[in-house]
Design brief:
10 strands, 30% helix, alpha+beta, 10-stranded antiparallel sheet, 274 residues
C-alpha cells in the first residue's frame, strides 16, 4: 500500500458523528476497495475481510467477519459513534497480508474531534485515472460532513500533517485550532469552510492557478487537488499551493523532522508571503 488518506472531523458535521463514519466507511468499501470486495465475493478470490469496533477501556470487541455479509449490522454500529472502528481486507492465505485498511478513532477523549484514515495501493503515481478516482472517493466520503481537515499523501504515512511536524505543533492544539489555521498541505488538501472564506472563496481558489481541481463540499469546505497525478506534485507545484494557502497557515520557521524524513514542505515561514 502506497497511499495514505487522513481526515479529521468535529461537531460541525451537520448530520452527527455517526453519519460521518457511515459515509466514510461506505465510500472506502465501494470506492477504495471495490476490487477487493469483488474478489472476496468470488469463490477462491483470495481475499477475506473483517470489520470490528475498537473498544474504549472495558468495552467489548464486536467483530464482523466477511463483512460483506454483515454490512448492515456494521453500519448500525457506526451510527452509535463507537470509540473506534476498522475495516480490513486480507489475503486469504497462511500469512494473511493486509491488502487494504481503513479506520476511525476518537482523537480527543471527549469525542468532540474524531479522525479517519485509510491506506490503499495505486499502481502508478502518474496514472491520471487512478489518481482522479482517489480524489472522487474522498469527495464522496466527505461531501455531507464539513470536515476539519484532510489530506492524501503518496508514500508518506506520518500521522502528523507536515506543518504539525516541522513547526513542532502539539497535535491537540492543532486540532482544536483547525478552523482558525490550516493544519498543513499535500497533494490533496481538505480545507474547512471557515478558511475557504478567509481565502476569498471557492472562485478565488479556482482562479489562483495553484490547483488542478477545486471541489466544493456540500456541507462546507473544499477539496484542493494540486496536480492531475501524485507524481505531478512537484516542488514547484507545492510552492504555488503554499503561497495561496499561506494566509491561513500557522506561522513559524519550518524545521525538518528527523523522525519523518519523507515529509514534504516549503522551507519558508508563511508570514513572509506577501
Amino acid at each position: 500500500m502506497n497511499v495514505y488518506i487522513e481526515v479529521s472531523f468535529d461537531t460541525a458535521a451537520p448530520n452527527g458523528p455517526g453519519e460521518s463514519l457511515i459515509q466514510w466507511f461506505r465510500a472506502a468499501r465501494t470506492g477504495l476497495y471495490s476490487g477487493l470486495v469483488e474478489a472476496e465475493a468470488k469463490r477462491g478470490g483470495g481475499v477475506v475481510s473483517e470489520a470490528r469496533f475498537i473498544p474504549h477501556i472495558d468495552d467489548s470487541v464486536r467483530r464482523f467477519p466477511r463483512v460483506g455479509q454483515t454490512w448492515a449490522q456494521f453500519e448500525e454500529g457506526l451510527a452509535t459513534f463507537p470509540w473506534g472502528a476498522q475495516l480490513v481486507f486480507l489475503a486469504d492465505g497462511a500469512e494473511l497480508a493486509v491488502l487494504g485498511r481503513t479506520s476511525s478513532y476518537h482523537v480527543l477523549s471527549d469525542g468532540s474531534i474524531w479522525g479517519a484514515s485509510a491506506t490503499v495501493s495505486v499502481n502508478s503515481p502518474d496514472d491520471v485515472a487512478s489518481c482522479t478516482a482517489l480524489v472522487d472517493v474522498l469527495h464522496a466520503a466527505l461531501d455531507a460532513s464539513s470536515p476539519l481537515f484532510g489530506r492524501i499523501e503518496w508514500n508518506i504515512f506520518s500521522e502528523l500533517p507536515n506543518l504539525d511536524a516541522v513547526l513542532r505543533r502539539r497535535r491537540c492544539t492543532s486540532l482544536r485550532e483547525g478552523r482558525q489555521l490550516l493544519r498543513g498541505y499535500a497533494w490533496v488538501t481538505v480545507c474547512p469552510a471557515e478558511l475557504v472564506a478567509r481565502l476569498g472563496g471557492t472562485a478565488v481558489l479556482e482562479d489562483s492557478g495553484a490547483f488542478h481541481r477545486v471541489l466544493p463540499l456540500q456541507a462546507g469546505g473544499v477539496l484542493l487537488q494540486a496536480s492531475a497525478t501524485m507524481a505531478g506534485y512537484t516542488d514547484q507545484v507545492m510552492e504555488k499551493v503554499f503561497e495561496v494557502l499561506a494566509p491561513v497557515l500557522p506561522q513559524g520557521e519550518p524545521q525538518p523532522d528527523p523522525a519523518s524524513p519523507k515529509l514534504r514542505f516549503v522551507p519558508r515561514d508563511a508570514a513572509t508571503v506577501c
